[in-house]
Design a protein that fits this description.
Layout: H1 2-16, H2 22-25, E1 45-52, E2 58-67, E3 74-82, E4 85-97, E5 102-109, E6 114-123, E7 126-129, E8 142-150, E9 153-162, E10 165-176
Antiparallel strand pairs: 1-2, 1-10, 2-3, 3-4, 4-5, 5-6, 6-7, 7-8, 8-9, 9-10
Length: about 180
């Protein structure tokens, strides 16, 4: 009887600290990991934008969001039209960062630069990017708000740091291509 009580106590203690496999206890998948990337799955697909920057320049672009390795990441390829041609401007990876415990975006640009951003879900339809610094010693100079109006449209608002203020440089809509 003493051995059974000890085993039960050990099983409860170990399960509380996550050492016992979760299937043994009938709970979450192995590791008890939440599927954090699923918050971004509505982006998967082909999207286009026709808008104007605050300086009046036109933006005509498209982004293809696709599932990556094991449906644990989402990749994005963004292309921008330049008169009669287009070029790939960005390649992005969206994933869960287990060390920082956040969704994040790593973006590689056509000019060789790289940026990392924290992605925060503010409500079921709104994401903020760049509001919380990925690196506290190097805060972002770019902020974005993506707000889903419906399953095929999201508003995109972009701000850039201008001195001590945030200046809006874009307010456009991305539309899902059929």
């Amino acid at each position: 009887m003493k051995n059974r009580l000890w085993f039960l106590h050990a099983l409860i203690t170990l399960s509380l600290v996550g050492i016992v496999p979760c299937q043994l206890l009938g709970s979450d998948p192995i590791g008890g990991e939440k599927d954090h990337i699923s918050a971004l799955e509505r982006f998967v697909g082909h999207w286009t934008i026709d808008a104007k920057w605050s300086d009046g320049n036109e933006l005509h672009g498209r982004t293809l969001y696709e599932w990556g390795v094991g449906n644990k990441i989402i990749t994005a390829k963004t292309f921008v039209k330049n008169k009669d041609s287009e070029y790939q401007r960005y390649f992005s990876i969206f994933a869960w960062n287990p060390k920082k415990k956040c969704l994040y975006d790593v973006t590689f640009s056509f000019d060789g630069s790289m940026s990392e951003y924290v992605i925060e879900q503010k409500d079921k339809d709104t994401f903020q990017i760049g509001y919380t610094p990925f690196d506290k010693d190097d805060p972002s100079k770019l902020r974005q708000i993506l707000h889903f109006k419906d399953k095929d449209t999201f508003a995109w608002t972009v701000f850039i740091k201008d001195g001590d203020e945030w200046k809006k440089i874009m307010e456009g809509e991305w539309k899902r291509s059929k």
